[in-house]
Please model this.
Amino acid sequence: MTENREWSEEDLKKRRLRSIAIALILAGMVVLFYITTLVRLGGNVADRAI
Amino acid sequence: MSDTSVEMSSAETTLARPEAPAGGGSVADYFALLKPRVMSLVIFTAFVGLVTAPGTLHPVFAFTALLCIAVGAGASGALNMWYDADIDANMQRTAKRPIPTGRIAAGEALGFGATLAVGSVVVLGLTVNWAAGALLALTIAFYIFVYTMWLKRRTPQNIVIGGAAGAFPPMIGWAAVTGSVDFASIALFLIIFMWTPPHFWALALYRARDYERVNVPMLPVVAGPDETRRQIWIYSLFLVPVTLLPCAAGNGGMVYLAASLLLGTMFLALAWRVFRRRTGPAAGLAARQLFGFSIVYLFALFAVLLVEHGLGLYIAVPWGWT
Model:
């Protein structure tokens, strides 16, 4: 199914938008994991020996 | 010097513009792989399972659970489109999907779907609980291996058994809260499980030629439209009592009981019309009406459960188990 053809302007635009979408999804996952970690730890995050 | 510049410029051009991939779909094409309309019903039913379950779940984990269930359902859709690309290309309803039209290569859909499937299960298991994660994994595996790969092209019972995959989401939502599988969540499962055959057979009645062309043994193709109408009527007769199970299990109250009886009567009326009208445009119209109403029916049943719990309208039925 590999096809030898050049990137058209349309292809490049689609690739740019795909890259932006992936970046946004990854950023969203980072935020989600950060928040879930905070919620899971709750007050225990401060309950440790210093 | 100038030769070197030309060579570098040429190399840069080559690096900047490698061969374009076969697919190279847009973001919208990848989103279409997730079957967003199916996904919306999955999210909704999972949400109802989550809300009606006893206990509480932190809003962040509730959101995460719904997100994972949605992504898992989308992954199932993408993997289904990858496997069924050959028949999708020859069916009117599915010919414009991203793979048959060449907008996304089959391998890309496989990688996309597999990544989302594993990711959704792992994230749900790690952040919410592994009962919900295991149920999501079972749902995806059932849809792909049991329904898509095994049953769909082999038996007219494909959507009867395969319908279980679409029935799991409220159980996953329930398990996200409780960490378990209870009779009340099984009742929600059974509603969708019993609803699936009349829903899809109504569609298959007026899309029979599509299925026949691609050798998918849907009931109208194998047993004929009259037998399909009879089966729709029989399954509808079983479906309506099953929709009352939430009342017995304690997650449906008096409002739900009244709504399910009213909606069930309407469903039976339309199923009876499908059974009786067997020729001409009236037969096709009856099947289309039942198919259209079946979507509203399922949505309405779960919406009533949601409203009953959300607005504090729950009054237990006298013969409930709880």
Summary: Chain B has two domains: 25-180, 182-322. Chain B touches chain A at residues 17-22, 24-27, 30, 58, 60-61, 64, 67, 105-107, 127 (CB under 8 Å). The radius of gyration of chain B is 23 Å.
